């Protein structure tokens, strides 16, 4: 993944290329070349591209990494106050809690609609197969976080211990 320092280097090179295109456009107008208007368009596009790359070099990319969290898949997200993720059935309680914290950090966005609610609710589920040909979804827990604060320290984590006990236990 590119970092802000990488984007700054790319923006500098794009800026140099923009100046070269601008000089070529000026030269084309002086010498009345047939492609002079195309060069103006190329220079304008390069200016916009350079500005975007420079903006990406200013804005820091931050991603919170919670130790012990495992990979999850986003199953449902209404873009407002509800989301559902799924985890593998062979998950332990510490991994589940860490994954819930990771999902709460990953799914935060200032653009979510509040719908008169102050919290984002993320349900965690898995699917087990108690017998051949039959699947059973299990809700393992739910985490609620603030819709307005990025670094919400007051996560409301509820783990369903009854459903967690139904999961297949790892063999040694």
Describe the structure.
The protein contains four helices and five strands; from the N terminus they run ααββαβββα. By secondary structure, the chain is an alpha+beta fold. The protein has two domains: 4-58; 73-165, no CATH class. β3 and β4 form a beta hairpin. α1 packs antiparallel against α2. The mean pLDDT is 87.
In short:
The protein has 172 residues and is of the alpha+beta class. It contains four helices and five strands; from the N terminus they run ααββαβββα. A five-stranded mixed beta sheet has the order 1-2-3-4-5.
Number of strands: 5
Q: What is the 3D shape? A: elongated
Helical segment tally?
4
Share of helical residues: 40-55%
Could you give the distance between the termini? 37 Å
Largest sheet: 5 strands, mixed
Strand order in the sheet with the most strands:
1-2-3-4-5
Low-confidence stretches: none
Query: What is the average per-residue confidence, as pLDDT, rounded to a whole number?
Result: 87
Order of helices and strands: HHEEHEEEH
The computed structural class is alpha+beta
Number of domains: 2
Rg, please? 25 Å
Q: What percent strand?
A: 15-25%
């Amino acid at each position: 993944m590119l970092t802000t320092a990488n984007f700054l280097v790319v923006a500098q090179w794009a800026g140099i290329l923009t100046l070269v295109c601008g000089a070529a456009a000026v030269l084309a107008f002086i010498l009345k070349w047939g492609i002079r208007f195309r060069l103006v368009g190329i220079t304008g596009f390069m200016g916009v591209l350079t500005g975007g790359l420079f903006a990406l070099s200013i804005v820091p990319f931050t991603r919170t990494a919670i130790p012990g969290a495992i990979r999850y898949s986003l199953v449902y997200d209404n873009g407002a106050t509800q989301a559902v993720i799924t985890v593998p059935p062979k998950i332990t309680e510490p991994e589940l809690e860490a994954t819930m914290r990771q999902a709460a950090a990953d799914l935060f966005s200032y653009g979510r609609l509040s719908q008169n609610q102050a919290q984002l609710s993320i349900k965690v589920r898995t699917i087990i197969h108690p017998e051949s040909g039959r699947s059973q979804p299990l809700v393992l827990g739910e985490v609620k976080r603030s819709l307005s604060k990025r670094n919400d320290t007051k996560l409301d984590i509820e783990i369903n211990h009854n459903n967690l006990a139904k999961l297949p236990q790892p063999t040694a």
